[in-house]
Design goal:
Layout: E1 2-5, H1 15-20, E2 26-28, E3 31-35, E4 43-48, H2 52-63, E5 68-72, E6 83-85, E7 91-93, E8 100-102, H3 105-111, E9 117-119, E10 124-128, E11 131-135, E12 137-138, H4 139-145, H5 160-165, H6 170-185, E13 202-203, E14 215-219, H7 223-230, E15 235-238, E16 251-256, H8 260-263, E17 273-283, E18 294-296, E19 307-310, H9 317-320, E20 326-334, E21 344-345, H10 349-363, E22 368-370, H11 372-375, H12 382-401
Parallel strand pairs: 4-5, 4-16, 5-15, 10-18, 12-13, 16-22
Antiparallel strand pairs: 1-3, 1-15, 2-3, 6-7, 8-14, 9-14, 10-11, 17-20, 17-21, 18-19, 19-20
Helix pairs in contact: 2-12
């Protein structure tokens, strides 16, 4: 199995470790192809997973003077925060669009440690009745479609559909929300948690931006460079599935950011996750295909995909004007068998209960922290993932200082 190592120690390795890297070829910034290896001495922390959670924790622990090794089973660092460039010159996000936003000036300053961000505020549309309509739903659309409708007081919503209908009339819910959500999760909307409806709203002022956060943007040189900078100077092994090589690592503490049920060999049963199958299409003769970066597709009659992303919309004008053609990605939500393809925890009570049992088991194991979107079975936006990881990292630093 191929792996990559970023030594991060100024080349001060013993001869045995150095020999393992002999003849290695540069893979990307700070990483080198090498045979699969384990750490030769006891590290303070082994971080399993190099996505946002793992990278932020690794960065904080390393900055605090601890020895850190990161193991990543994918062939590249950065987890889902990764991008590639199409042959046309159009960059695209490997695992779906990442729109960074935060209201925290502290978090905004933090990400600027690793990249300069240029302004970008995502605007989305939904394809409804043959027209592009605002998403989130515009209050003017509701007034146009169901004139005179007002929310009616109800008991606490018991499921996603009830929570959605508390915000909008049924006709609007069925056009924008019901079909999209049932495609996304693969079950009737009535089987989903009411809390899921907190992820969207109705814009009475017709505000077209996806989010209203104070700080919004994209790293100028892309997300892969952003993540490489965050992990700079930290030893990384990529292409290594820790769960298949546990005995080959030695560390005083383990931070695991993968699926919590997989860590325990699914011994209590499998948690349910959703992922995306992404289909790319390059249109060489079209300058543009749609009016914005993302168009949602709530109507099953228009195809199984839940959204279409047109990547040129992410580029600044001076860069996109020199590119002919346009690149689309259509995303179809699936239930993956491979844990490496898990993206979203499933929002229902049964899975929340099963997660709770795994979490209790994890807490009983000394020097083990299981965290992140898959480890905590909780959906985090990028800023939330960073903030949560900072809190956990500081907790580890404080505990080590006692």
């Amino acid at each position: 199995m191929a792996a990559a190592v970023n030594s991060g120690d100024g080349g001060k390795r013993d001869e045995t470790a150095a020999s393992r890297l002999a003849g290695a070829k540069n893979a990307q910034a700070g990483e080198f192809k090498a045979p699969l290896r384990y750490n030769d001495s006891m590290d303070d922390y082994l971080i399993v997973g190099s996505g946002l959670t793992g990278a932020v924790i690794a960065r904080a622990l390393s900055d605090a003077g601890h020895s850190v090794l990161v193991a990543e089973r994918r062939s590249h660092a950065g987890g889902n925060v990764h991008e590639q460039t199409h042959a046309s010159g159009i960059p695209f996000h490997t695992y779906g669009p990442h729109y960074f936003r935060t209201n925290s000036e502290k978090l905004w300053d933090y990400v600027h440690r690793f990249a300069k961000f240029r302004p970008f505020e995502a605007v989305l549309k939904s394809w409804v009745d043959g027209r592009y309509e605002n998403w989130p739903i515009a209050g003017s659309y509701i007034r146009r479609t169901a004139n005179g409708w007002t929310p009616s007081p109800t008991a606490t919503p018991q499921n996603f559909e009830e929570a959605s209908l508390a915000m909008m009339p049924r006709v609007v819910y069925e056009k924008f929300v019901k079909g999209y959500s049932e495609k996304q999760w693969g079950v009737p909307a009535t089987a989903l948690s009411a809390n899921l409806a907190k992820r969207f709203d109705v814009r009475e002022d017709d505000e077209p931006r996806l989010m209203r956060h104070k700080f919004q943007g994209l790293p100028e040189n892309g997300y892969s460079a952003f993540m490489a900078k965050m992990l700079d100077g930290i030893r990384i092994i990529v292409g290594c599935d820790y769960l298949k090589h546990r005995s080959e690592f030695a560390a005083r503490h383990i931070v695991f950011t993968g699926p919590i049920d997989e860590y325990f060999g699914f011994e209590r049963g499998r948690l349910k996750y959703r992922g995306q199958r992404r289909e790319h299409q390059f249109l060489p003769d079209a300058e543009w295909h749609q009016p914005c970066i993302q168009v949602n597709n709530p109507d099953a009659a228009n195809g199984p995909h839940i959204r279409t992303v047109e990547w040129k919309h992410l580029l600044p004008p001076e860069q996109r004007d020199g590119i002919s053609g346009t690149l689309l990605t259509r995303e179809v939500t699936v239930t993956p068998d491979d844990p490496n393809e898990y993206e979203y925890p499933f929002p229902d009570d049964a899975n929340a209960k099963l997660y709770g049992a795994y979490a209790e088991q994890a807490r009983s194991i000394p020097n083990l922290l299981i965290c992140g979107r898959l480890g905590e079975y909780c959906y985090y936006d990028m800023d939330q993932a960073i903030g949560r990881a900072q809190v956990l990292a500081q907790r580890l630093i404080d505990e080590a200082a006692r």
